[in-house]
Structures are given as C-alpha cells and as structure tokens.
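## retry 2 of 3
previous attempt timed out at serialization; input unchanged, resubmitting
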Amino acid sequence: MNEPFVVVNGLKKNYKIRLGMFGGTANLQAVDDLSFEIEEGKTFGLVGESGSGKTTTARLILGAEPATEGTVRIGGQPLNNAKGRVDISLRRIVQPVFQDPYTSLSPRMRIGRIIDEPIRIHGLLHGEKELSHRVSELLEMVGLPQETAKRFPNELSGGQRQRVAIARALAPNPRFIVLDEPVSALDVSIQAQILNLLKDLQEQFKLTYLLISHDLSVVSFMSDRIGVLYLGRFMELGPKSQVLGECTHPYTLILRSAAAPDESTMMAVSGEIPSPLSPPSGCPFNTRCPLADERCRTERPRFKEVGSNHWSACHKTDAVRDMLQSDSEANSYSLNNN
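## retry succeeded, writing output
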C-alpha cells in the first residue's frame, strides 16, 4: 500500500532561551514527539489553545524552521534534502495560508502581482498575457472579480484579503496547503464563507490540508482526523467522529464544551496553560484538570490506543467515558419524557 500523502514521525522542536543578561539558558520544548498522517485529499485538524505548539508545528512542516528531531515526508519524499534544506521539488506543492490577511499581504503590491509572484518564482508561466490570464482564473476561483487584480490590499475587506491569500496559495498548483488559523481574524459572518470556499477548492483540486485552529467548531467542520495538542504533546488523536463523539481526555471534553456551551456535559478549566520553560511533572494537563489526582501529578500518561486508530494520553479515560455515557442517558431520558 502507498503511504499517506503527509507522514510526520517523532517531530520535536527545542529552543535555547536566554534567562536575562547573566542568567544562562534554559531549554524550551515547543513540540514534543508528534506523529500523525494525512491521506491525500483529506484534512487533519490540529486544535489547542495559544501556546500549545500549533504554529511551531506548522512552521516545521512548512520547512520554515528545522526540527530538532523527527521527520516529515510529503508525497513520498523527505521534506529536507541531504543538506537539511527543504527539497526544491516540494517548495511548489506545499503552500501556506496564514492567520492574518492584514499582515500577510504586501501593502505596496497590487493584488495581481501578489497572486502571480509564486508563478514567477517557480517559472511556471512566462509572458505578461499568460500571467494576467492565470490571475483572472485564480480570482474567479476564490469568488473575486477580475478588476481586483488592479487594487491594493488596503482597498479590500478582511474576507476579500483572505480570498486573495488563498488565490496566492493556489497559484503554483499545490497539493498540500497548511492553513494556520485561516478564519480567526475574520468576522463570524465571513468565517463560514471562507471555510466553505476551502472545502469546495479541496474537492475540486483534491487538495490535502493541515488545518490549525484554537476553535474546535472550525476543526470539526473541516477535518477528517483531529489531533488535540497541549504543551507540544498530543492529548488525543483519531477520527473526528471518535475524538468529538467518544472523547477520552478531559482537555478534549473542555474544548468541546467551549465549542458547544449549551450541552449538558460541561467541564470548566481554570488558570492558563503553563510555561513550556517549566512544564508540570506527570500529565502536562494536571495543573488545570478537574479530574486530576496524585497519579496524574506524578506519572506521565502513556499515549495509548483506546479505540480503532483512536489514541489518548490520560489516566482518566474511563471517567471521561462515564461522564459522556451519563450525559447521553440524561439526554435520552429528557427527550423521551417531553
């Protein structure tokens, strides 16, 4: 069998942080042993709070930063060549769409030049007439009129700018797109339009997506598989239906509650995510988990399979399942007695 289109294995990223002028250095582990796969034409959703390591993971997979350990394979090829640089053949087929359309587009360039820049860089077309025609095609793909090519980014709305960013990513005919919080900077009324556009483009061109978001409802809408990230480690990983419908980690349940605050199974979380410079012992989530006990504070949970291709790192998987079961029975009783 052919391997999945994207294969991430044992990915780690450490930074040396200087502690003041005379304080020496400390080790910050931003990403800790991540492994996952993305089938061609599918979406893997990476979800977690700010500071969980999502964007660092995206930068490693894009080749914007070197990994401390681990490998990334895209389309059967290693991301990095023998010299440690991103393989030139992958630079075209792997493209990003960043969070903020206000800062990711050059204010000094017209939209047409922003979109055709990747085509020029990769030498895919030659001649202004061919480039202009391709830009018009790309603008039409993302739902913008052709005259947009003559405008500057500050003349467009946030949603229009993100459509331009998507058109720029599509310009060199990629196969894999990393979406780093692609709608978080947009009004709620525009978010659904952009997400539907991304789904339509994925179906049309058989694109593979890595979607990064702090919003579980966005990840739920877009993804086939989901990885729940906390302090650079996976807390839960598996098919969307299992991670959301049969979650086994308190952190996943908390994120689910935040995305659907009207559901009866609610779990509150207090405090903020700990600093990766001084992570807690035991389970990384134990300082904020309402179910944590002494074992959680001293023994790091093993990342184990809890269902068909469904993985979790928690000592309390049975307790979380019991909570979900009780919630399901309570909802059933309520419906039957109305």
